[in-house]
């Protein structure tokens, strides 16, 4: 497994190196994804947009499908090792870039987890998939929770990897309007992205994580970056205003909660005092607290791991993941 992951990651990093210092389009046309990308046309708020997705069919199918939802600062590209491992086990793997993210359109619309969930259900219906195991990381965990509440019959099992929204940010993070967040997003630089990723996502920084920064910061050089920045602000507002933490008890399907115990993620952390930061975002406590709220939940914790276990400790994460499918 380790050798396969190393070869896969190395090949992907080589492809990233080709555009690491380039300006990236806000829909990542010049970013090579690990598998072919297709597009689903969607009409929303009088706009024609398109939703990018990878649909990876295994060589020896087991008849089951897994859908992966990415986090706010990412797209389908960071699921490479997970897709590879699941496909090898016979799973069909569907990996969308949510509207507003990755290779998908960046429209100015009212962003809501309800709307994003509906778009993903439309994707499954178009592909003829009736039921999935659903996994969401970070913001994708909030979306996966909302999807599971809206379409319980479509979700066989829910897997949440360090989901945000385990607490209601509105109760302790000062309100910022989308206009305020837009001004902050416009200040994005390579240095600011790397500093944020280093302090927020990983316990120890490694050079192989640089590709995440290259993609996250590369769009800031695009002439269309103001559009990207506004969408980023609107989706931050979505996270802030649309909590799911009060509805975990309503989940009826089996849930597996994967938690990096050193995760300290707080949406809007920069707006807090040091005293407030110390009170919140402690996943070592939030993980067990959340697991107790869910009727049928298994908690899997990773020691000395931050916000993205599938990137920071891929072998351990994939072993735990495949053992719980």
What does this structure look like?
There is one protein chain. This protein has 325 residues and is an alpha/beta fold. The chain has a single domain (2-323), classed as Rossmann fold, CATH 3.40.50.1820. It has twelve helices and eight strands. The chain has helices at 2-17, 80-88, 113-127, 139-150, 178-185, 190-200, 210-218, 225-241, 274-279, 283-293, 309-312, 314-323, and strands spanning 37-44, 47-56, 65-69, 92-96, 132-137, 155-161, 255-260, 297-302. Strands 1-2-4-3-5-6-7-8 form an eight-stranded mixed β-sheet, sandwiched between helices. A hairpin with a 2-residue loop joins strand 1 and strand 2. Helix 1 crosses helix 2 (80-88) and helix 3 (113-127) packs across helix 4. The longest helix is centred in the last third of the chain and has 17 residues, at 225-241. The protein is globular. The two termini are 17 Å apart.
Fold topology:
Elements: H1 2-17, E1 37-44, E2 47-56, E3 65-69, H2 80-88, E4 92-96, H3 113-127, E5 132-137, H4 139-150, E6 155-161, H5 178-185, H6 190-200, H7 210-218, H8 225-241, E7 255-260, H9 274-279, H10 283-293, E8 297-302, H11 309-312, H12 314-323
Parallel strand pairs: 3-4, 3-5, 5-6, 6-7, 7-8
Antiparallel strand pairs: 1-2, 2-4
Helix pairs in contact: 1-2, 3-4, 5-8, 6-7
């Amino acid at each position: 497994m380790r050798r396969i992951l190393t070869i896969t990651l190395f090949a992907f990093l080589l492809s990233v190196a080709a555009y690491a210092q380039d300006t990236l389009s806000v829909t990542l046309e010049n970013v090579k994804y690990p598998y072919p990308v297709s597009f689903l046309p969607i009409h929303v708020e009088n706009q024609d947009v398109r939703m990018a997705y990878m649909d990876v069919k295994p060589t020896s199918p087991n008849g089951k499908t897994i859908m992966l939802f990415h986090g706010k600062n990412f797209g389908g590209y960071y699921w490479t090792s997970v897709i590879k491992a699941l496909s090898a086990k016979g799973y069909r793997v569907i990996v969308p870039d949510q509207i507003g993210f990755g290779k998908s359109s960046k429209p100015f619309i009212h962003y809501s987890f309800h709307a994003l969930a509906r778009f993903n259900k439309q994707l499954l219906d178009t592909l003829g998939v009736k039921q999935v195991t659903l996994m969401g990381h970070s913001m994708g965990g909030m979306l996966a929770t909302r999807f599971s509440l809206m379409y319980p019959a479509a979700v066989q099992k829910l897997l949440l990897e360090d989901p945000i929204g385990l607490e209601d940010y509105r109760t302790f993070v000062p309100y910022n309007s989308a206009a305020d967040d837009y001004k902050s997003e416009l200040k994005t630089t390579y240095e600011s992205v790397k500093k944020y990723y280093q302090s927020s996502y990983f316990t120890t920084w490694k050079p192989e994580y640089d590709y995440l920064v290259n993609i996250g910061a590369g769009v800031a050089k695009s002439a269309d970056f103001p559009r990207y920045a506004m969408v980023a602000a609107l989706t931050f507002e979505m996270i802030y205003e649309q909590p799911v933490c009060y509805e975990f008890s309503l989940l009826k399907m089996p849930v597996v909660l994967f938690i990096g115990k050193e995760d300290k993620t707080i949406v809007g952390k920069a707006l807090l005092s040091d005293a407030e930061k110390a009170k919140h975002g402690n996943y070592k406590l939030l993980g067990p607290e959340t697991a107790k709220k869910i009727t049928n939940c298994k908690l899997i914790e990773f020691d000395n791991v931050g916000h993205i276990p599938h990137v920071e400790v891929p072998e351990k994460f994939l072993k735990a993941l495949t053992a719980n499918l």
